Amino acid sequence: MPWRWLALVLSLCAAPMFAAEATRFYGYEVVNTYPHEITAFTQGLIYRDGYLWEGTGKRGQSRLARIELETGQVLQQERLPSRYFGEGIEMVEDRIYQLTWRSHIVFVRDRDSLEQLDAHYNPREGWGLAWDGEHLILSDGSSSLQLIDPEGFVPVGEIEVTIRGEPLANLNELEYIDGEIWANIWQTDFIARIDPASGVVLAVVDLTGLADRTELGSSEAVLNGIAWDGENRRLFVTGKHWANLFEIELTERE
Ligand SMILES: [Ca+2]
Q1: β-bridge pairing 74-79 and 86-92
Q2: Is 67 strand, coil or helix?
Q3: Ligand 1: distance of its center to the CA of 236 in Å?
Q4: Domain carrying residue 8
Q5: Contact 21/203 with Cβ under 8 angstroms?
Q6: Which CATH number characterizes residue 15's domain?
Q7: What pLDDT shows up at residue 133?
């Protein structure tokens, strides 16, 4: 039941005393609003070296792009062959990994030229990707996250993600922030903050209303894409077919 977890979250909201003990909840404030290409079907988003990097999906529209934050302008891009549906991206040193949805191929590109250096096999679906400094973290739409050695893209571990003891599925775009794994929950306005050691959802970020602040380019326009500027501690979020990307700060909920 795909919405089972949502019922759990809402029940937590309705019981704040218990929720405060079990799962923290955060709201948000918008700090900055930037342009974002409304045609971009955002599947992977990171901020590194002063730029946004975005992987997009849809066959025939999939690409990896380096983007200027302030203008949303694409500075550099590499398109995927039209048979591939691009998914999550992550940078490991001078290499960028880009997932495909169901083609089981992971492209490895040079950070500077975006030229393909290598390709790996991913036995699962490819959804989101993050980097904890030692392993890549892969989501596949289930409640399970894979830990992967970037050398050869070899799975070395698994994290089962739960909220109040129940599996939390539909984990999508990922970001590793201050020792936590943050995950968009597909087709919702929620981001889960996950303890990598236990898989327990420590907190839920509720971004309800953010989509109302931008133009949406299709019926598939949902929140997706988390990027963290660790140096300046800035948090960026956007969505598929959203006309804007937002810098937000979290607010505590009672
Ligand atoms: Ca990300």
Answers
A1: unpaired
A2: strand
A3: 9
A4: 4-252
A5: no
A6: 2.120.10.30
A7: 98
- Spatial separation of the C-alpha atoms in residues 48 and 104, rounded to whole Å: 26
- Cα(7) to centroid of ligand 1, in Å? 26
Taking the centre of ligand 1 as the mean of its atom positions, its distance from the CA of residue 172, in whole angstroms, is 10
d(CA 153, CA 64): 19
Centre of ligand 1 to C-alpha 98, Å, is 12
Q: 106 CA distance to ligand 1 centroid (A)?
A: 16
Are residues 201 and 24 in contact, defined by beta-carbon separation less than 8 angstroms? no
Asked if residues 203 and 24 have their Cβ atoms less than 8 Å apart, the reply is yes
The pLDDT tens digits of the residues spanning 50-108 come to 999 999 999 999 999 999 999 999 999 999 999 999 999 999 999 999 999 999 999 99
Q: How far is the CA of 54 from the centre of ligand 1 (A)?
A: 9
E strands in 111-229: 116-121, 128-131, 136-139, 144-149, 154-160, 162-163, 166-167, 171-177, 180-185, 190-194, 201-206, 223-229
How many whole angstroms from 71 Cα to the centroid of ligand 1?
19
Asked if residues 139 and 88 have their Cβ atoms less than 8 Å apart, the reply is yes
Torsion angle of the four alpha carbons 130, 23, 10, 14, in this order, in degrees rounded to the nearest 10? -160
Distance of CA 67 from the midpoint of ligand 1 (Å): 14
165 CA to middle of ligand 1, Å?
Answer: 25
Query: How many distinct structural domains can be found in the chain?
Result: 1
Residue 64 Cα to ligand 1 midpoint, Å, equals 13
Full-model pTM: 0.92
| 3-class secondary structure, 12 | helix
